Amino acid sequence: MRLYLLALNPTDSVTEGFLPAAARLGLDVTVLTDQPEAHRRTIPDIEVLECDVRDFRAVITRISTHHRPDAVFSNSDHLQTQAALAAAYFELPGKDWRAALRAKDKAEMRRRLAASGVDAVWSTEITEPLALDAPYPCVLKPREGVASEDVVLVQGPEDLVTRSKEILERRPGTALVVEEYLPGELHTLETLGDGHVRHVLGGFRTELSPPPYFIEERMVFVPARPEPVQAQVLAQLDALGVGFGACHTEFVVHAGRARIIEVNYRAIGDQCDLLLARLLDIPLFEHILRTHLGEPLPADLGVRRDGAARLEYPCADRAGTLTEAPGPTELTVDGVRLTYRPLRETGERHDLYGTNRDYLGVLRATGTDQATVDRVSARFLAERRWEIQP
Fold first, then answer.
1. Mind listing the pLDDT tens digit for each residue in 238-274?
2. To 5 degrees, how large is the angle CA 163–CA 167–CA 172?
3. Is 164 a domain residue?
4. Are residues 141 and 191 in the same domain?
5. How far apart are CA 342 and CA 271, in angstroms?
6. CATH number of the domain encompassing residue 172
7. Given CB 3.0 to 4.6 Å as the disulfide criterion, which of 30, 116, 247, 274 pairs with 239?
8. pLDDT tier, 148 (very low <50, low <70, confident <90, very high otherwise)
9. Are residues 144 and 218 in the same domain?
C-alpha cells in the first residue's frame, strides 16, 4: 500500500513519528515536498519527489503520474486542505476539505462558530495598517499563521497601526485578523477520530511568555477536563466539522466557559506528539495513519491513564550567537524519564523573534507523579547552561 505524505520543511513529527510508523505498518511512502533536498538529507531511504504542495492541482497531477495512492496524508498546518482535496479526488479516506479550510483560516473559523451559535468573538480582517474602533486589548495575528508567528497583543488603535505595519512589512500581502482578547487559562485538547468514533486523548495546560507575545514556554499534561468544559470544546469542533484523524485544539477556560483560540487540524507538534505516544503507551502515529487508510479506530485505544508529564522549552532572551548549550540527553531520574533535544546548533546566530523560533531546545519528562516530574525537570534545567553572545 502506498502512502503519499505532503510536507514542507522536515519536522520531528514526520521523521521520528509518522515515517517510522509507516514502516511498521509496511507502507510504501512517497514524500511530496517543495523542499526535496532537505528531506533527502534527513530521510535518505525514503522516496522524495519535488512538488508544489501548496497547490492541490499540482499534488493531484504528481500523484496521477506516479504510483496509485492508497492514502494521502499531511501533518502540516499549511497543507491540510490540499491533502484533503487530493484524497477526495482519488476517492480515498480523508478530512472534509471545508473543515480543513475552516480550521486553517482563523477568520472563517470565527464566522463559522458565530453562525453556528456556539460562540461569538469580535473579529475582523485587515490588509493594511488601520486604527480600528475595537474592544481593546485585542490580539493581532496572521489569518493563516502558525506557532505564535506574528501574534501580538495590542493595547489601542495606535499600537494596532504600529504592530500591523511591522507584520505587513515582513509579510507583504498577508491578511491579518484582529480579534478580542479572550481571558482565561490556556489549555489544549488532543483528539483522534475516524469520522464515526472520536477519542479524547487528554491535553495540556500551557504557560505563556509575558505579553505582548504568546510564546508557549511550558506544558503540563492534563489527562481529563471537567465534562462541561470538554463538551463545550467538542461542540465547537462539531460546528467546524472537525472529527477525522488527529486534531490539536487550543482553548481558554474562564468562569467555566471554554472558548477556542485556534484549531490545528493535525497532531500536536513541538515534540508533544512524541511525548503523548510514550505517555499513553499507544501506537499513536500508527492509529492516525490507519484512519487515512480507511481503517476504523478501536472502541478502546487501551490508553494508559496513570501518567504525568511536562514539556519545557528553554528560550533565547536576546539576539546573538549561541556559544554554549547542552547536547542531546536521555536519562531516568527518580522514576522520571527525561529526553532533551537541542533545537538550535551552537555557533548559530539568530534574531529575537518573539515566537516559538526562540526555542533553544525541548525537554520531555514523563513519570507517574506530577510533583516528581516537575521537581526533576526543574533540577535538570537548573543544572544546564545556555549562553548567547551578541
1. 999 999 999 999 999 999 999 999 999 999 999 999 9
2. 140
3. yes
4. no
5. 12
6. 3.30.1490.20
7. 116
8. confident
9. no
Sign of dihedral through CA atoms 233, 238, 239, 241? positive
Q: Which helix (H) or strand (E) holds 333?
A: strand 329-333
Is residue 64 helix, strand or coil? helix
Rg of the chain (C-alpha set) = 21
Residue 129: the pLDDT is 96
Number of domains composing the chain: 3
Cβ count within 10 A of residue 64: 12
List CB contacts of 61: < 8 A, sequence separation 6 or more. none
Task: Please say whether the beta carbons of 163 and 95 come within 8 A.
Answer: no
Asked if 308 and 196 sit in the same domain, the reply is yes
Query: Is 109 within the bounds of a domain?
Result: no
Dihedral (CA of 181, 182, 184, 190) sign: negative
pTM: 0.96
Q: Which CATH number characterizes residue 218's domain?
A: 3.30.470.20
What is the Cα 346 distance to its own chain's centre? 26
Q: Report which residue type is found at 228.
A: P
Backbone φ and ψ for 239, nearest 5 degrees, come out as -65, -30
Q: How large is the angle between the packed helices 227-240 and 97-104, nearest 10 degrees?
A: 110
The verdict on residue 99 lying in a domain is no
Q: 222 to each of 111, 165, 208, 217, 251, how far by Cα in Å?
A: 30, 38, 16, 16, 14
Angstrom distances, CA of residue 226 to CA of 223, 232, 253: 10, 10, 11
